[in-house]
Specification:
single chain, alpha/beta, 3 helices, 9 strands, globular
Length: 128
Amino acid sequence: MASARPRPKVMTLTDAAAARVAEIMSNNDRPIAALKVGVKNGGCAGMSYTMEWATEIGKFDEVVEDRGAKVVIDPKAILFLLGTQMDYKIDKLSSGFVFKNPNETSACGCGESVAITPAKADALAASE
């Protein structure tokens, strides 16, 4: 019997993003299970990314562990984030996490919201 191929991650992290998440988690004075990433409706382009600290991992959360960082994906956001790469950028006047999402169809000028077309459910099933 052939072995099942490994299931790909919904999201990957660059070295910079993994290092920043791990650094923030290790410097926090309260227990943190992971950084939780999701999407919500709103903004001029229709949706925006959300990030918050999770004190526990939910039953249906998708867990991404990479280079000492633990990120969980809100189950409602999986089809919107499938194939996304999370990076951490430092510029002259700002720093922050950025998302390279193949499902984005447009973004607003302010950079705070995006239009995302969810991946087809069969794309997730085919990747399993």
